[in-house]
User: Fold this.
Amino acid sequence: MNTLIIGDIHGCFDELVELCDRAGIGDGDVVVSVGDVVDRGPQPGEVVDFFRRRPGSVVLMGNHERKHVRGVLSYGQEVTREQLGDRYADDVRWMSTLPYHLERPDVRVVHFGHFPGVALDEVPEDVRAGTTSGEGRLRESYGDRPWWEHYDDDVPIVFGHHVVGPEPLVVRDRVFGVDTGACHGLALTGLLLPARRLVSVPAREDHWARVRKRWQVPVLRRQPWPTMTFEQIGKKVGKLRDPELGDESLDRILGWIESLRATIPSLRDALEGEATRLEAEGGDFGRAAAAHPAGAWLLRHRAGRLSPTHLGCSTPADLVRLARALGRELPAEPLRP
Ligand SMILES: [Mn+2]
Assistant:
């Protein structure tokens, strides 16, 4: 029985199939992924299905799966959510079951980090998964020296996470860094056991360059911009910004938000004008306001409880509603089909 331990696959399904083929993997063999099976590549669903359906498969938790499980979605994860569509929630449930390491008598596997000398199951999860906090812990312990320079057990250890270049990293024939950047157009690499033979296939193209462009507008479209608070919008925009891509579409969204907020002074004037008019009529202000489409705002204004800077509007939809109540149409959200 052979075992093939594969570096970061990141949705590169064609390369995965070709690698298994080239390594001579058969039904009785074991295929292990160091994690990061999704994000950045063209076919995350196919890669997930490959492992979910194949007996004799092990997928470890990578920092990318962990982001999905924890619901912390940056642009790369938003793209995956679009690619997976209706099956996304089910796939994330599957991701939440992934182990953080594999320990066998003949090999150890983690997505990224280890404290050599400590049992793997006692190493913090974020270190094993290679999250930002986990990498911070490693730096606290080892400074700029990588953890594997401290590893001198006889049992080989395999990890991914950092692209080591087009060729795998091999240290003292027992430490194997096998993330060779498949999604960035370099190669997909696996370590075949028990032979300890490294097998690679070249990537078809720089997948992420194409994927990140292809999904930009769908990702921006799916955000519920009108009902997000202005604060949430600011945070989301920060997460979705991708300087390498050019943010023309994102800037259109931001331009729209700015144009809505720019109407606040004139909406305030209109509101004050209506309040003055109702007061001048001399009747019961409360009753008159209740019959006015902008009544709720007029009452708050009169009570001195309406902030002059946001007029009680925390979302674009609030502003649109207020404007309509005052008989005005604000510009429509861009990118809507
Ligand atoms: Mn990765």
About this structure: The chain is about 45% helix and 10% strand.
